[in-house]
Amino acid sequence: MQEFVCVTGIILQQTPIGEYDRRICLLTKERGKISAFAKGARRPGSRMAAVTSPFSFGVFKLYEGRSSYTVKEADIQNYFEALRTDYIGAYYGMYFVEVADYYTRENNDEIEMLKLLYQSLKAICTGSLPNRLVKCVFEVKSIAVNGEFPGLPEDDGLEESTVYALHYIVSSSIEKLYTFNVTLSVLEQLEAVALTYCDRFMDREFKSLEILKTLC
Predict the structure, then answer these.
(1) Is residue 71 within 8 Å of 24, Cβ to Cβ?
(2) Mean pLDDT across 46-69
(3) Please, what are the domains in the chain?
(4) Taking the model in full, what pTM does it have?
(5) How many alpha carbons fall within 13 Å on the CB side of residue 34?
């Protein structure tokens, strides 16, 4: 008899396999980043089609094999449906997913990164803050969560509000990250700092980010 496990997580990406199946990459609370197969997910009318789409967050029931997982069923709690109609928001979401995929590993404790991804997608969907600010917060906090934050930049040209915002992003809980706004001048300084950090600590080009640059 096959054993199964239940994991809470979000789908980072899905890839067609064969004629009707999909392979999904899941960032989970219990087992870090894992891959699983969804048999028949690409068949017309399959109940697995919607629950194996990127951004879907919920509880996944998986059969655990010797070297892989297979999705049996899923209870999706948030599809982040706003990203299906807001194409610019969707590219921000895809960028966040790419960064999460870059940083996370199987069997690591990735709870903080999962929470950060969830809250960031939620912030994009609600639209209460500028997308550019959400992106800065996500980038700086991602670096901090993964233990690479080098400290506040030694730059006398930064406004006091910029320094305060950076300190808040690094030190606050993820649940309280998206509770502040900034002036345009502070936002531009935050973007410059975040870009410097990303260039230093993320040695990869993200496709969605390149597309975002042409849209914004």
Answers:
(1) yes
(2) 91
(3) 3-78 (2.40.50.140), 82-215 (1.20.1440)
(4) 0.94
(5) 25
